[in-house]
Amino acid sequence: MSLENERYQRWLNAPDLEPALYEELRAIKDQPAEIAERFYTHLSFGTGGMRGEIGAGTNRMNIYTIRKATLGLAHYLHNRKSGDLNPERDNNFSMAGKHHADSSVVIAYDCRHHSDRFALEAALTLAQQGIKAFLFPNLAPTPQLSFAVRRLQADAGIMITASHNPPEYNGYKVYGPDGAQLNVQDAEQLMAMIAQVEDELSVPVASQEEALDKGLLVYLDEQIDRDYVRYVTSLSLEPELIGEMSEQFKIVFTPLHGTATKLVQAVLKEAGFKQVYMVEEQVAPDPDFSTVASPNPEEHEAFALAIEKAKLIEADIIMGTDPDADRMGIVVRDDQGTYRVLTGNQTGALLLNYILTRRNAQGTLAANHTICKTIVTSELGRVIGQHFGLETIDTLTGFKFIGEKIKQFKATGDRQFLFGYEESYGYLIGDEVRDKDAIQAVLLAAEMGAYYKSKGLTLYEALLALYKQYGYYREDLISVTLKGREGLEKIRQTMATLRQDPPRTLTGQPVTVIEDYQSQRRQNLVLGREEPLSLPASNVLKFILQDESWVCVRPSGTEPKLKLYIGVKGDSLQEADRKLQAVKEAVSDVTAF
Fold first, then answer.
1. What is its EC number (predicted)?
2. Active-site residue among 104, 115, 163, 378?
3. Residue 315 confidence (pLDDT) above 60
4. If pLDDT is split at 50, 70 and 90, which confidence band does 560 have?
5. Using CA atoms in the order 152, 177, 431, 316, what is the torsion angle rounded to 10 degrees?
């Protein structure tokens, strides 16, 4: 019998298996391919934790995979406190419970199917191990989870979310005591602990009543909301300006059926904005995201209803957040009055320039202020930072690497974090949160729009001014979805082929530099020399062309996708768009590329 079938039979014959999952498994008994897909592996952690389709099986999100991951986390926290993170040396590694009540974990969840149940299962698994769980009683955004971990001085955080994935997905992200997602080393240690849990079906959990009685399950009250709103509002750079423009500047906001509604409304009201209009059809949490094809502000179609509302009231800005409110997209009117969805790179450049301009004028810009961005994010931000005499540090893709930099800055004291962002609509202004924060971004984007309106400019005109000053930078992303075991193998083969036989020309231009982040080497093909890359090893390849256009290829850490990021620079928007299209056509067939 194959391993997949052994696992399938073990689940099917488990005496206390949840009835719905049992029926799901019975329904596929004559579908070997489906059985193999659900049981050929265990859900694993990538750049953003554990994420997968909801359902029965070791390769699915369900209460048993949640319990397994959480038991691994409990042992990880125990061994971290004891100074021993080698599971091979933990002779007492079992599921009996170690009862170390001095540890605590904050748990939050979004609007997805079973998120509240998964969060409670995680809390009760921790309680069985003697670890206190601070559980949000209602939906909460990812950045607020990060904030709460720091505010409550917890040892870890768990966020139940699949971000902007389709409705059939859910996920599980783990945060460290600094409020950032676990770095590579810590994530590997956690994965080793999880792997030691051999039978996910037998993980014990406390009863809710027992956990509450023992003080190991504590529901958070609204004080954490008030603290977070007060903190985010304190990040305003021009509070008086907001008061002056509050009646003139019109905002349309959509949470895309997610978690942001309550906090965004509270922050904008506290800051002084009065003309705030919600997209009513998308305010209520909805795990099926019924009004959009994808609850992702990166997708222009997600703003269709918001644009309709904006046209009616002649809004100055539209803002939208994804389900767990860590990503934000904005829509602005161009010089023809048409509403345009900005890219994450464009929004990031605008926010960065606004922050630098206002801080410089206020005399609060320090020489050691530092900008952080990922290696697949536009170079425009670096050029803007240079204009103000500031350095930009690149990190690997994934906001946890920016969070890691903030921790380093705090430890050494030689740098101050100013702004962090990534092309995928993630921004961070204040470092009391250590993950991308769409609530912060909403406030600063609204304030920025009001500022430019006070100067007689739209945000689109402000963007064109940036291009005129610094160059016309354009970027795009091609995502190739490759699901299942065959998809994973296809991704592996494609990356291997690109390493063994890399392209030497693209769009008729020679490839001048190849950066392989897995081998941590940068190869200059013009000068014929190699040099080391300082970033951690990662399965990423970057190809730089003669005119400094670039293509970066990497497997997604959270989705079954191969991602190709593209960046170009032109002397005009038309030239930049032409260059971008040429590179996209050259790499559109990733297998040929």
1. 5.4.2.2
2. 163
3. yes
4. confident
5. -70
